[in-house]
Amino acid sequence: MADIIQLLPDHVANQIAAGEVVQRPASVVKELLENAIDAKATSITLVIKDAGKTLVQVTDNGVGMSVTDARLSFERHATSKIKSAEDLFNLHTKGFRGEALASIAAIAHVELKTKTADSEIGTHLTIEGSKVISQDPAVVPKGTTISVKNLFYNIPARRNFLKSNPVETRHIIDEFHRVALAHPNVAFQMLHNGSDVFNLPSSNSRQRIVNIFGNKTNEKLVPVNEETEILKIEGFVLKPEFGKKSRGEQFFFVNDRFIKSPYLHHAVSSAFEGLMKNDVHPGYFLFLEVDPHSIDINIHPTKTEIKFDDEHSMYAMLRATVKHSLGQFNIAPVLDFERDKGFDTPYEYSKKSPTAPSIEVDRDFNPFKEKPKQGNINFPFKREQSASWESLYIGLNDEKAAVSNLGDIEFESEEVTGSLFENTETESGQLTFQLQNKYIVSPLKNGMMIIHQNLAHQRILYEELLKNITVKEAVSQQLLFPLQLHFSKPDLEIIEKVREQLEHTGFIFSEIKDETIEISGIPVLILESHVVNLLSQLVHDIKEDVPDSGFSQNDMLAKSMAASMAIKTGISLNKEEREHLINQLFACKEPSVSPRNKLIFTTMDVSDLDKKFI
After folding, report:
1. Domain boundary at 296, 329, 362, which?
2. Using CA atoms, how far apart are residues 224 and 228, in angstroms rounded to an integer?
3. Residue 3: what pLDDT?
4. pTM for this entry
5. Which among 179, 239, 465, 558 has most CB atoms closer than 10 A?
């Protein structure tokens, strides 16, 4: 039998490795930024075009590479980070497996310019699909510039799996945030299609968080700090009142490396137990330092998951530290608007000593006298003159009056008539009631119908909002005092893109600049207090799944707004509100399913109930 096992060519092996290392342009950004950090750079610039599909360029002022190192850096498993297997458990750098640049060069056009501090001239290297096109001396500044162009140009099937530009840009920004937050002492700059997205100067951790997520973030942060023999914890958690329904601002860093750990996340969430609702997630920026020998980083291709030696101790320490910080720093004044001001101590009496109360008694007081003596007693109120006691006995001797009233006396009948239950039937002949403040039950001819009130209201609002966006005939309610909302720069860009559609629903934007939005008018369907949550949820939905322009964008916008504005579970509805909701639902074009294709109502026949009693 002939031999059938053979070695793969290098370019094929590199493309296979690229499948693990490079899933999307954000993966390239992560590897290049981490290489710049390992090169001891103090200033890093990221330039992307077309969400990284056309260009990803990272420029740093690090140590640079020699001519030989520049060429070897694109070979598989070539690295300066480790020399033996033992070094895998004593890592202080980011990349260490030597696969990143080789994998990137296999699926893109790569251009490298680098120079060390003690070299007079640098190196210019060009590679296309793992093939070295040229390597020439060049006059370049100290540091390294890597340009990755036309990603997946030789794997068109892989390129077709990439999402739209806004989605890929969001993933790039997420990777940029993770590296920038872990290294606040390094200055970062990011440009997308020629426009400045981030310009982060060298600072401390708190200022870096504020520079990325907006100035209003500063008042939300609660510092966390604890150091033990096993673990050192630093960072911040967001105050409980600023929790979100989405898991956006949640960052764990272990030895300056971003990780994902559901186990540690549960430790933080349990520390917030009793302070937040069940469907609200806390925000945190936590930096953990542990002994490199106690963790294993090399268990996942993207190195975002690591293995701890003693997870239980870390869980307990993290939970206790966060809980202690919340108890120590989360002190906020409570505003009680129902407080009786009569119990307050006047300001002029605050420094006076209390005096014993004196009691005065009118010994001549007689309740049977028509006009009681007032004397010199200072009563707190004026007693109204009452009738004399003789008036209580008037009419007792009037027999005619007593006999005439006998006809008005009603005697209890021995025969019990009437229904067992109170008759709550409506004028229209329907009997509706609410179950668990979640479902509306309505009778049918042969059974009953159970309606999910939240999903039903979502369908009603969705069709109305979609009509307003399309027809552009929405009605606005003017605000006496304009709302000023604060968002980060990426969130502001998202709102700016859908500003026209939001205005068609009834929003009136007075001004959008810097990190502030001023709103002078809102749709009549929502309350002023719900505007912040609605726009925040809308930004989150757009980040999760950004549709292309046109109807699909309007559809997503209407779905997100309807979900935020709909009646929530737990809201009690009276008879008129229940009937109005049912009538509006069945006036919709598609009353059976919600905007996200969930069943709105179900029916149950009498025969189904009969089967329960067999």
Report:
1. 329
2. 14
3. 77
4. 0.67
5. 465
